[in-house]
Amino acid sequence: MGNRFDGYRRLTFQFNDGWKGEDAHEFIGEFVMLKCRVRPPGDQEACYDEAGERIFTVRAPRGLSSGDIINALQDVFTTACRCEHDCCGHLQTRAGLPRRIKRREWVVEVRCFHNI
Questions:
Q1: Which pTM does this prediction carry?
Q2: Which of 43, 61, 106, 115 shows a CA-CA span of 20 to 30 A to 9?
Q3: pLDDT at residue 1 above 80?
């Protein structure tokens, strides 16, 4: 896989997730995507229009605190719709609490769902 992405520390929290790009951020380093697994939704989850989960394994840059890594990963993998009404059908994601599996490797479980 080996995709790289920039990580940022979110400094202000004035906007919700749909507009979080408007908040102040500070660059903290380049992360590397090592693996991605897809867990499809179960029968009951599909009834509520859940789109399953993505499980990402990521390598963090050197020298960061665990708190900075957790915040950066949750920020990158959480997305929200910008529509001003419900039921638009856009895909949204929510990152769970990232957990460390090796010195610089982290796993993030991301739940995907549609805005209905």
A1: 0.84
A2: 115
A3: no
